[in-house]
Amino acid sequence: MNLYNLYGGKTKNKKMEQEIDTNELGESIVKVLKSIYDPEIPVDIYELGLIYDVMVNTDYEVKILMTLTSPNCPVAESLPREVEEKVKTIENIKDVDVEITFDPPWSKDLMSEEAKLELGML
């Protein structure tokens, strides 16, 4: 699967002969990711810093590289599945592959300023 970083601009889908605005698609994916919350922390997974990378190819297939707050996270099974299912609901998305990594391990430094403020860490 040839993947292109979502924020790389427009690419052309040879099969459908139409342009994909990857910036617009990226915004849609981020909007969905911001609707998914870690059940133990009242912050969405995007602001929490659990999403390391989002890529899309010209066939509307998405790959999401993400982590969890710890390898023993109680939602290790359900959270990646929720991410996959919700991103698949975006129009034109054909497939979603969610890969979990612990390299680098998650730390509070990965959280956005918004998340830190929400959790009273600023």
TrEMBL record:
Residues 28-100 form the MIP18 family-like domain. Pfam families: FeS_assembly_P. Gene3D superfamilies: Fe-S cluster assembly (FSCA). SUPFAM superfamilies: Fe-S cluster assembly (FSCA) domain-like (SSF117916). NCBIfam families: SUF_assoc (TIGR02945). This is MIP18 family-like domain-containing protein. The lineage of its organism: Bacteria, Pseudomonadati, Bacteroidota, Flavobacteriia, Flavobacteriales.
